[in-house]
TrEMBL record:
<keyword id="KW-0812">Transmembrane</keyword>
<dbReference type="Pfam" id="PF01061">
    <property type="entry name" value="ABC2_membrane"/>
</dbReference>
<protein>
    <submittedName>
        <fullName>ABC transporter</fullName>
    </submittedName>
</protein>
<dbReference type="InterPro" id="IPR050352">
    <property type="entry name" value="ABCG_transporters"/>
</dbReference>
<keyword id="KW-0813">Transport</keyword>
<feature type="domain" description="ABC-2 type transporter transmembrane">
    <location>
        <begin position="2"/>
        <end position="102"/>
    </location>
</feature>
<keyword id="KW-0472">Membrane</keyword>
<dbReference type="InterPro" id="IPR013525">
    <property type="entry name" value="ABC2_TM"/>
</dbReference>
<keyword id="KW-1133">Transmembrane helix</keyword>
<dbReference type="GO" id="GO:0005886">
    <property type="term" value="C:plasma membrane"/>
</dbReference>
<dbReference type="GO" id="GO:0140359">
    <property type="term" value="F:ABC-type transporter activity"/>
</dbReference>
């Protein structure tokens, strides 16, 4: 449908992308906000409003980064099966510096790798915030 509308000159691709992003943005932000609002207080984390707002901000920024990463991979990779395999491998690689799987990895062994991971900063801020 997008190809048909683009070929007839109805609108540019950038306007379609911006409209799609604006339509998806409320759901991309409302669901994580509801999740954090429930689990933060039930999880017994630091009972301060500022800590909750920091946690919520970090989570929402992480959601936007992951959404952007998914859009970029979707734009570069045209084969769906290869794209799914690539995303799976990248997510596993990004989880290693965040110490998601193993807690007792010496920090120098991953020197510089936490820069590329969107999870390393967000998980450390939420845990130690």
């Amino acid at each position: 449908m997008l190809s048909k509308e683009r070929s007839s000159g109805m609108y540019r691709l950038s306007s379609c992308f911006i409209a799609s992003t604006m339509v998806d943005l409320p759901m991309e932000l409302i669901l994580p906000t509801a999740f954090v609002t429930i689990t933060y207080w039930l999880g017994g984390l630091k009972p301060a409003v500022t800590s909750f707002l920091i946690c919520l901000t970090i989570l929402l920024l992480s959601v936007l980064v992951v959404q952007s990463l998914g859009l970029a991979i979707g734009a570069f990779v045209m084969n769906v099966k290869f794209g799914l395999a690539l995303v799976t491998v990248l997510m596993e690689i990004f989880q290693l510096p965040s110490r998601f799987y193993v807690q007792n990895i010496p920090r120098p062994s991953f020197r510089g790798s936490n820069i590329a991971s969107h999870l390393s900063d967000s998980s450390s801020e939420i845990q130690w915030g």
